[in-house]
Amino acid sequence: MLKLQPIPIKYLMVQSKVSHPLTYYQALPKVELHRHLEGSVRVETLAEIGQDHGIHNTGPLVLGPMVQIGDDEPHTFENFLSKFAPLRLFYRSPEVIGRITREAIEDAARDNIRYLELRFSPVALSKAERFPLAQVIDWVIEGARLGEETYGVTTRLIASVNRHESTDLAEQVAWLAMDRKRKGIIGLDLAGNEAEYPARPFVGIFHEAQQEGLQITIHAGEWGGADNVVEAIEVFGAKRIGHGVRVMEDEAAITLARTTGTIFEVCLTSNYQSGVVPQRKRHPIVPMLDAGLNITLNTDDPSISKITLSEEYRQACEAQGLSLASLRERIIATAQATFLPEGEKKKLIAHLNQELLPGKGR
């Protein structure tokens, strides 16, 4: 578990002065880099899928506790990961996979997200019906294309593989993703049970993906210690780290991350619900910024955590003490951290800067 870090007095003073309704944060233009498709599925959609495909006892009231974190549940990585197992029962057809992809983008649009990097696990989506991985990936690509066209959220995809699954499966996913770079897949992610499974067996696969033009992001320093962050940077060559908050346990790791400009995809509520941070109000995001680390704000699994990115923004400002000016800086920093080509990235940043100008109603 992450050790509590002292919060500088200057941030506590900011916290006491800031109070805005959620609508203030909803109005802000947003960018998200760390959102899992499988953790974004609406409970109402699952209930409809269950009814259509004869899955019993899948009404919303039954499903909610199965796939979402309750207030009284234990905050452990085991409980958090347990929510994904029942979800795998519902990916029953190309139409279902396309639908949940489009709806994830629709939900992002409702939260005023301008650019979304949506990561997905082809292996997880293929399990229920043993679909070929290539077909699953193509269904997600098509769903994302339609979602982007319909809802106006520029969307790119990151294929995700898990530490607890075989390297053979990971290699298949990586090669299929490399073949689809021109169709919207821009990155490869290593996720899964960091506490009990090592990352090292996947190094060769990720190096090959990088050589073929895929960007990489590694879940590290979430349920494992700061040494996993160091490994992700030095061994994998990762420019972005999923979560990474336990970097604060080691000064050498902090220095490495700062000097390399490593980007941290921080997810406040997820870190609390999965037991990484023992108290919601003592998340180390502000000490990380104070240490010169490059932080972005994300949801991780908005449906599982029952949150939006707007709510994460409000929590960052009103519970953790991030100033509104710093929040705006983080929005631009998130845009700079995307896996977009430089030309597209510059356009996104220019649009965001224009929307965030004073006098825009915020």
Q: What's the topology here?
A:
Layout lengths: L8 H9 L4 H5 L3 E7 L6 H10 L7 H8 L9 H6 L1 H4 L6 H17 L2 E8 L1 H5 L6 H19 L2 E9 L4 H12 L6 E7 L11 H9 L3 E6 L5 H9 L5 E4 L7 H10 L2 E4 L1 H6 L11 H6 L3 E4 L4 H4 L3 H10 L5 H13 L5 H14 L7
Helix pairs in contact: 3-4, 7-9, 12-13, 18-19
Structural commentary:
With 362 residues, this protein is an alpha/beta fold. It has a single domain, classed as Metal-dependent hydrolases (TIM Barrel, Alpha-Beta Barrel). It contains 19 helices and 8 strands. An 8-stranded parallel β-sheet has the order 1-2-3-4-5-6-7-8. Helix 3 packs across helix 4 and helix 12 packs parallel to helix 13. The longest helix is centred in the middle third of the chain and has 19 residues. The chain is globular, with a radius of gyration of 19 Å. The two termini are 37 Å apart. The N terminus is likely disordered.
Protein structure class: alpha/beta
The sequence of SSEs as H and E is HHEHHHHHEHHEHEHEHEHEHHEHHHH
Mean pLDDT across residues: 92
> Which shape, going by the Cα principal axes?
globular
Query: What number of structural domains do the residues give?
Result: 1
Biggest sheet strand order reads: 1-2-3-4-5-6-7-8
Number of helices: 19
- Measured by DSSP, the beta-strand proportion falls in 5-15%
CATH homology superfamily name: Metal-dependent hydrolases
Task: Put the structure in a nutshell.
The protein is α/β, with parallel strands linked by helices and 362 residues long. It contains 19 helices and eight strands.
